[in-house]
Write a structure and sequence with these properties.
By secondary structure, the chain is an alpha+beta fold. The chain contains three helices and ten strands. The protein has helices spanning 13-46, 61-89, 203-211, and strands at residues 98-105, 108-112, 118-120, 127-132, 137-143, 148-152, 157-161, 167-171, 177-183, 195-201. A hairpin with a 2-residue loop joins strand 1 and strand 2. Helix 1 (13-46) packs antiparallel against helix 2. The chain is elongated and about 80 Å long.
Length: 212
């Protein structure tokens, strides 16, 4: 369990992870373009024996060293970017506006609120997580049996739930609406049915719901 650390008032996880993903995406496109370009160059130059036979060299120490250094720099850059994003998203807010406890179990979800309200999923009736928009919400997550994973695709956010362990994290939902959620960790026979919905209300509407 992490301690409470200072954190900016609003962290947009979708933006943070989207920016990180774009780095990997452009790097993938660049590597693919280089590989395809080299293959096409070799096919054109050496087709039907054109261009002469290879020079027979079995080593290119300078080229191989440069290649290794470039790969190491790229790997270090990706690791640094990933940890930088995690460092912005992971710290907990000092004063969250709401705390919700998440309990994952085969094969549904349970959400418990400080006022005693709870939502429990059943087969064919997924649980509904009701939260206020534009407010920092702290979640405490655990599992009753195996490893599950709380995943909200619209936020690009996923966090594993472990048995006998509590994980804490913050989220901010920046707009109202209903968004799908699901378990992202294969957890058994009915893993595909382990879904939930996130219902994001305006602050006043949420206050009325919590009193109801």
């Amino acid at each position: 369990m992490r301690g409470v650390l200072p954190k900016p008032s609003v962290i947009d996880t979708r933006h943070e992870y989207g920016g990180l993903f774009s780095i990997y995406e452009w790097l993938t496109v660049g590597v693919a373009a280089i590989v395809v370009g080299l293959v096409l160059f070799a096919l054109v130059r050496y087709r039907s024996g054109r261009g002469g036979p290879p020079n027979g060299r079995s080593e290119a120490k300078v080229g191989e060293s440069v290649y290794a250094v470039v790969l190491a720099v790229i790997a270090a850059g990706l690791v640094a970017a990933t940890f930088h994003t995690e460092s912005r998203v992971d710290p907990l807010a000092a004063n969250p506006k709401l705390r919700v406890r998440i309990t994952a179990f085969d094969w549904q979800w349970r959400f418990d609120y400080p006022n005693g309200r709870s939502a429990v999923g059943r087969p064919g009736r997924p649980a509904v997580l009701v939260v206020p928009a534009r407010k920092e919400i702290e979640f405490e997550e655990t599992s009753r049996d195996v490893v599950h994973s709380f995943w909200v695709p619209s936020l690009r956010f996923k966090r594993d739930a472990f048995p006998n362990r509590t994980t804490r994290f913050d989220l901010v939902f920046d707009r109202t609406g209903v968004f799908p959620g699901r378990c992202a960790e294969f957890c058994g026979l009915h893993h595909a049915d382990m879904t939930f919905r996130v219902r994001v209300l305006g602050p006043a509407e949420f206050d009325a719901w919590s009193r109801g």
